[in-house]
Request: fold
Amino acid sequence: MDPPKPAPNWKKNRRARAKIRAKIKSEEFANKGLADPYTAKKLISRSNKEKNRACIKFKKSIKMFKQNSSVEKSKVLVIEEGRNAARALKKEAIDDFKKAQEKRVVGEVMAGKPPSHAKAAEKELLEKIYK
Reply:
Protein backbone atom coordinates (compact mmCIF):
# COMPACT_ATOMS: atom_id res chain seq x y z
CA MET A 1 0.00 0.00 0.00
CA ASP A 2 1.07 3.52 -0.74
CA PRO A 3 1.36 6.02 2.08
CA PRO A 4 -1.58 8.48 2.28
CA LYS A 5 -1.20 11.76 0.40
CA PRO A 6 -0.96 14.92 2.48
CA ALA A 7 -4.14 16.98 2.60
CA PRO A 8 -4.15 19.97 0.25
CA ASN A 9 -3.61 23.32 1.87
CA TRP A 10 -7.00 24.65 0.76
CA LYS A 11 -7.05 27.69 3.09
CA LYS A 12 -3.79 28.98 1.69
CA ASN A 13 -4.99 28.45 -1.89
CA ARG A 14 -8.30 30.16 -1.20
CA ARG A 15 -6.57 33.18 0.36
CA ALA A 16 -4.23 33.48 -2.61
CA ARG A 17 -7.15 33.37 -5.07
CA ALA A 18 -9.05 35.98 -3.02
CA LYS A 19 -6.05 38.33 -3.06
CA ILE A 20 -5.72 38.00 -6.83
CA ARG A 21 -9.45 38.57 -7.29
CA ALA A 22 -9.39 41.64 -5.01
CA LYS A 23 -6.42 43.09 -6.88
CA ILE A 24 -8.16 42.66 -10.24
CA LYS A 25 -11.38 44.21 -8.93
CA SER A 26 -9.59 47.22 -7.43
CA GLU A 27 -7.80 47.78 -10.76
CA GLU A 28 -11.14 47.65 -12.60
CA PHE A 29 -12.62 50.24 -10.26
CA ALA A 30 -9.52 52.43 -10.59
CA ASN A 31 -9.81 52.29 -14.39
CA LYS A 32 -13.44 53.41 -14.16
CA GLY A 33 -12.45 56.23 -11.80
CA LEU A 34 -14.35 54.76 -8.86
CA ALA A 35 -13.25 53.81 -5.37
CA ASP A 36 -13.07 50.21 -4.27
CA PRO A 37 -16.33 49.49 -2.35
CA TYR A 38 -14.60 46.88 -0.18
CA THR A 39 -12.11 49.50 1.03
CA ALA A 40 -14.91 52.00 1.61
CA LYS A 41 -16.93 49.49 3.62
CA LYS A 42 -13.86 48.62 5.67
CA LEU A 43 -13.21 52.33 6.35
CA ILE A 44 -16.78 52.84 7.56
CA SER A 45 -16.63 49.85 9.91
CA ARG A 46 -13.29 50.99 11.31
CA SER A 47 -14.71 54.45 11.96
CA ASN A 48 -17.61 52.86 13.87
CA LYS A 49 -15.14 50.95 16.03
CA GLU A 50 -13.19 54.16 16.70
CA LYS A 51 -16.42 55.91 17.67
CA ASN A 52 -17.17 53.14 20.16
CA ARG A 53 -13.68 53.43 21.65
CA ALA A 54 -14.16 57.19 22.00
CA CYS A 55 -17.48 56.57 23.77
CA ILE A 56 -15.77 54.27 26.23
CA LYS A 57 -13.14 56.95 26.95
CA PHE A 58 -15.86 59.57 27.38
CA LYS A 59 -17.78 57.35 29.83
CA LYS A 60 -14.57 56.81 31.77
CA SER A 61 -13.98 60.59 31.98
CA ILE A 62 -17.52 61.12 33.29
CA LYS A 63 -16.92 58.43 35.91
CA MET A 64 -13.65 60.13 36.90
CA PHE A 65 -15.47 63.46 37.34
CA LYS A 66 -18.02 61.78 39.60
CA GLN A 67 -15.27 60.19 41.70
CA ASN A 68 -13.55 63.56 42.12
CA SER A 69 -16.63 65.54 43.13
CA SER A 70 -15.81 65.81 46.84
CA VAL A 71 -15.34 69.28 48.34
CA GLU A 72 -13.21 68.48 51.36
CA LYS A 73 -10.45 71.00 52.05
CA SER A 74 -7.90 68.33 52.87
CA LYS A 75 -8.27 66.66 49.47
CA VAL A 76 -8.34 69.74 47.23
CA LEU A 77 -5.05 69.04 45.42
CA VAL A 78 -5.83 65.36 44.86
CA ILE A 79 -9.31 66.20 43.58
CA GLU A 80 -7.94 68.87 41.23
CA GLU A 81 -5.44 66.38 39.78
CA GLY A 82 -8.24 63.88 39.21
CA ARG A 83 -10.41 66.50 37.52
CA ASN A 84 -7.56 67.59 35.27
CA ALA A 85 -6.99 63.98 34.24
CA ALA A 86 -10.72 63.62 33.53
CA ARG A 87 -10.71 66.81 31.43
CA ALA A 88 -7.73 65.55 29.43
CA LEU A 89 -9.43 62.19 28.83
CA LYS A 90 -12.64 63.95 27.77
CA LYS A 91 -10.75 66.14 25.31
CA GLU A 92 -8.94 63.10 23.90
CA ALA A 93 -12.24 61.23 23.48
CA ILE A 94 -13.81 64.17 21.64
CA ASP A 95 -10.80 64.47 19.31
CA ASP A 96 -10.90 60.74 18.56
CA PHE A 97 -14.62 60.97 17.85
CA LYS A 98 -14.09 63.88 15.43
CA LYS A 99 -11.48 61.89 13.52
CA ALA A 100 -13.84 58.90 13.36
CA GLN A 101 -16.62 61.15 12.02
CA GLU A 102 -14.31 62.44 9.29
CA LYS A 103 -13.24 58.89 8.37
CA ARG A 104 -16.86 57.82 8.12
CA VAL A 105 -17.70 60.67 5.75
CA VAL A 106 -14.71 59.77 3.56
CA GLY A 107 -15.82 56.14 3.51
CA GLU A 108 -19.38 57.09 2.57
CA VAL A 109 -18.16 59.29 -0.28
CA MET A 110 -15.89 56.48 -1.49
CA ALA A 111 -18.83 54.06 -1.40
CA GLY A 112 -20.88 56.46 -3.54
CA LYS A 113 -23.38 57.27 -0.78
CA PRO A 114 -24.36 60.82 0.14
CA PRO A 115 -22.21 61.90 3.11
CA SER A 116 -23.97 62.10 6.46
CA HIS A 117 -23.87 65.48 8.11
CA ALA A 118 -22.10 65.06 11.42
CA LYS A 119 -23.27 66.91 14.50
CA ALA A 120 -20.93 68.45 17.02
CA ALA A 121 -18.72 65.67 18.34
CA GLU A 122 -19.53 66.20 22.02
CA LYS A 123 -23.27 66.34 21.36
CA GLU A 124 -23.23 63.16 19.27
CA LEU A 125 -21.08 61.42 21.89
CA LEU A 126 -23.58 62.24 24.63
CA GLU A 127 -26.47 61.06 22.44
CA LYS A 128 -24.67 57.81 21.74
CA ILE A 129 -23.95 57.21 25.43
CA TYR A 130 -27.37 58.12 26.84
CA LYS A 131 -29.70 56.63 24.23
In short: The mean pLDDT is 86. The chain is about 75% helix and 0% strand. The helical segments are 10-32, 37-67, 76-111, 121-130. The CA atoms of residues 28 and 77 lie 62 Å apart.
